[in-house]
Amino acid sequence: MPRPDASLRSFVGYDMKRAFSVIQYDVNAVLMAFGLRMVTFSALVVIRDNPGLRQTRLAQILMIERPNLVLILDDLERADLVLRERCAEDRRAYELSVTEQGAQVCERAVRAVARHDARMTEGLSEAQCQALHRALQLIERKGRTGDDTGSVSRA
Amino acid sequence: MPRPDASLRSFVGYDMKRAFSVIQYDVNAVLMAFGLRMVTFSALVVIRDNPGLRQTRLAQILMIERPNLVLILDDLERADLVLRERCAEDRRAYELSVTEQGAQVCERAVRAVARHDARMTEGLSEAQCQALHRALQLIERKGRTGDDTGSVSRA
DNA sequence: TATTGTTATACTCTATAACTATA
DNA sequence: TATAGTTATAGAGTATAACAATA
Hints:
The structure is a homodimer.
Chain A lengths: L11 H21 L5 H12 L5 H8 L3 H13 L3 E5 L7 E5 L1 H21 L5 H17 L13
Antiparallel strand pairs in A: 1-2
Chain A binds a DNA duplex through helix 4.
């Protein structure tokens, strides 16, 4: 047997866990320069693209629990990247938006992560890279119970 | 924008995190029937394939820290699936091996995970599935500092 | 009564320092 | 002194129950 873990290499879950742990480590290193982690980065990008978003909906989109999102937003608000504003129609809710600084940091962080992504997939053709994305999204759909079909209000 | 997280979908890390969380949840559900988790399953398979393995080497293979492996092996030993036997040449070390029961559980768990794997990649051709494995392993190698070249003693 | 955001909490995973026993 | 396995511990990440304010 060439590798001591050869048996496990036939399972996508094993290869994916290893590949992901490598990516996670690297991306977090890239994002640290912006004071961000993977989750706070993801939240920042989605809020920028969907201004007026409410927390419950954002939690659905990112597939995280509402209580966990609170700390993520506290983090982003403390760094002056995101605003929570009381919703006029429903005063229980907040409307989320990025600040001017948040938009700038988001833009630069996206570019940095894109550069890192390019380095990680270096050696794959454009077609192979697209095939990878499609395969991952197909696998994600297999496990979905999910109602991620709803549209999001845009300002 | 079709999806609220469309910007993030261009990053392999994002697609991979979501696909992996789906797989992890599912595979853990499959393994629960055998009293195993993903890590204990991985350890069991590698020990079966590399009898006489020492803990430090197993930790390297699975890319986990030695202290964390201890609890994993405690778990496997308590379930009578794995044996720790004092090494004759070096009495600090243990030689790891699977019990008769461990071999049987391993065999059946491998088959169950393989069936689940087939379901997850259903819709991908054989070639596409191989391409997925190759892409994931390529990404893993990008982040390696690593010395995973050493061979493992086989009984 | 139900929902939004929140608090408190617990459980897993992961990472590091320091210990013991052997070498 | 260095190494193998271990202990203790701390930090993330993640999950659930229950609360206050509002609907």
